[in-house]
Amino acid sequence: MTSLPPSVTARRATRPAGRPALGPTARRLLSICGALLTALLCALSVGASPASAHAALTATDPADGAVVKTAPSQVRLTFSEGVLLSRDSVRVLDPNGKRVDTGGPAHVDGRSSTAAVGLHSGLPDGTFTVAWKVVSEDSHPVAGAFTFSIGAPSKTKAKVPSDAGPDTAVETLYDIGRYAAYGGFAALVGGCVFAGLCRSSRPVQKLTVGGWVTLFSATLLLLLLRGPYTDGKGIGGVFDLGGLGDVLSTKPGAALLSRLLLLGAAAVFLAVLFGSYVPSYPRRAADADPRRRQDLAFGLAFGGTVVSVGLAATWAMAEHASVGIQSALAMPVDVVHMLAVGVWLGGLGALVATLRAGEPIERAAVRRFSRLAFGSVVALVLTGVYQSWRQVGSWSALTGTDYGRWLLVKIGLVGVLLAIAAVSRRWTARLADGPAETAGDTADEATAETSGETANTTTDKTAGEKTTGESRADAESQADSQADGESGGTAAGPADPVRTAQLARQKAAVAKATTLRRRYGDLARGSLYRSVVAEAIVAVVLLAVATVLSGTQPGRAASAGAKASGSIAESTPSVDPISVEIPYDTGPKSGRGKAVFMLDPALPGDNLVHVFLFDRADRPVDAEEVKVSLTLPKKNLGPLPVPLEHLSAGHWSAKSFQLPMGGTWRLSLTVRTSDIDQVTETRNLKIGQ
């Protein structure tokens, strides 16, 4: 065995050895985890769409596409749930694209699910565009637009962006920040609980402090990105200090600011926890006054509980739990859910760090964590069942909505995690007490000490002599190297750099072998390490799924939005393009065929018209003349001729045709195939209001 000098042995006794490379099993698990995370991040980076919106527009006044006789005094919007408004949440544009609203939209009669904005007086006739952008009470932006007309529809120059959602880069960074915040919270809470109740070590300290840094950085990033995220601006909006002020006046902004302030208190808590209660040197902890230590433990328990509950509440008060049914009960339940996640998953990370570093850990400490994790799982299941019922609402929504499908994925991952945890509990029961050191470890250290002492003695007697009487050849070689190095450094000048580098490599090899023996030398400890690593990897993916869920519209809200959209559609005679197939026969054999009339969007205002002619073999065919007109008998309007333009064989079109109002219109189609052969066919069309 290779021996080490006493100074190296002393350093090994006070700090863990270097970090060895991952084994093949761990590398495979990490590769799988990386692939799963990549797929989930791709899902996170998808832009907002109507299906993932959290508040749906259920009604407007004036209605979408309506033609009113006189100008309204205000425009009112109603949503499926409460929304947050800003100074530009509702904009009304006249036919020339100029704003005609008074600004400053507000809720109607204090109802957070409504928004209204006043209009200037003396508005002209024509088509007006209403562009709206609000933030759901669970912090997600929603946007859209609709039109109404005063007097009669007209052409409009108002331009509304087709994609009013967040900027792609901003949304991607925002989602990454949300994921990092969840992970940092779990590492911070779980690391503190593990250090206080199970065992503290340098790896646990690094994990916990890393969680604090990650959570603080992610929260600061989310606060800076909040304005561009909700307003649809680019990444440059981060530097808009005025926008930051608007963000802080909203509920999500206040929650993020509160989280930063609580993290300041958490920093003080960490300093006391790792500086006084669980110091790095066990002797200092053993020599501490028991009464003082008990008082400190009580203070840390109380302060840590307050800070962790406050941090969890910053999510509960600004996301899904704060809106919908039973929100007063859902928010504290969500806090318990977040804390259980932090204790379980963060504690797993702390246990992995301890076992990986080869730190000694007693079976009693692992069993304490096992019982703590079991209690956290029970709390997770109970709160998760309630949250699932509240957010999904029905069995059909569990498979028929994005939220329900992601929830099934999360449930499956939790099941996998529980199965691996059961394996870990079995290995915990077999774990031996005391530090995880093997006989080989002790023998190596004893040999290192003996060889080191011999080397030092030989050096004192005569510089450059080799040690004698050692039982192992590698001990003799290392003692020679040490003796030569020391004598060269004291009598013959500076040490040989080649010999010094060789000695350093020997030290690193012994340290690596010692750590591996501590980790895998005992069957129970090695198996426990592998199963806990597997748990941690599944937990990382589970956090990513939870992040996706927090950004997806709950199934109950999606179902309500679909019903509201359906009721709006039923109140409108036609909101889809109209396509009518009309057979015609002008007399001769070549005058038989069919015409297809298309009207898009079949609403009052500007419409696109297409007419196609086909012969009996469904081949495009031309005619001498094609004429179309529309009449509204109930209002004694028309006939209104459609200015068709011949585009290609069998195809006529009108790019702009104005319909003044909705109702049941009579379509007249005339096809003339020669100077004397023609026919006129009529059909009734329902045009939306």
Describe what is shown at a glance.
With 689 residues, the protein is of the alpha+beta class. Helix content is 53%, strand content 18%. The strands form 4 sheets. Strands 2, 4, 5, 8 and 9 form a 5-stranded mixed beta sheet that branches. It has a 5-stranded antiparallel beta sheet with strand order 10-11-12-16-15, with no helix packed on it. It has a 4-stranded antiparallel beta sheet with strand order 1-3-7-6.
Q: Which secondary structure elements does this structure contain, and how are they paired or packed?
A:
Layout: H1 6-14, H2 24-44, E1 57-61, E2 67-68, E3 74-79, E4 83-84, E5 90-93, E6 106-108, E7 111-118, E8 126-136, E9 141-150, H3 168-197, H4 202-231, H5 241-248, H6 251-277, H7 282-287, H8 290-316, H9 327-356, H10 363-392, H11 395-400, H12 402-430, H13 439-461, H14 473-490, H15 497-520, H16 523-550, H17 555-571, E10 578-585, E11 592-600, E12 605-614, E13 625-632, E14 637-641, E15 645-648, E16 651-659, E17 663-672, E18 678-687
Parallel strand pairs: 2-9
Antiparallel strand pairs: 1-3, 3-7, 4-8, 5-8, 6-7, 8-9, 10-11, 11-12, 12-16, 13-14, 13-17, 15-16, 17-18
Helix pairs in contact: 2-16, 3-4, 3-8, 3-9, 3-16, 4-5, 4-6, 4-9, 6-8, 8-9, 9-10, 9-16, 10-12, 12-16, 13-14, 14-15
Describe this structure in words.
The protein has helices at 6-14, 24-44, 168-197, 202-231, 241-248, 251-277, 282-287, 290-316, 327-356, 363-392, 395-400, 402-430, 439-461, 473-490, 497-520, 523-550, 555-571; strands at residues 57-61, 67-68, 74-79, 83-84, 90-93, 106-108, 111-118, 126-136, 141-150, 578-585, 592-600, 605-614, 625-632, 637-641, 645-648, 651-659, 663-672, 678-687. With 689 residues, the chain is α+β, with helices and mostly antiparallel strands. The longest helix is centred in the N-terminal third of the chain and has 30 residues, at 168-197. It starts with 5 loop residues before the first helix and ends with a strand.
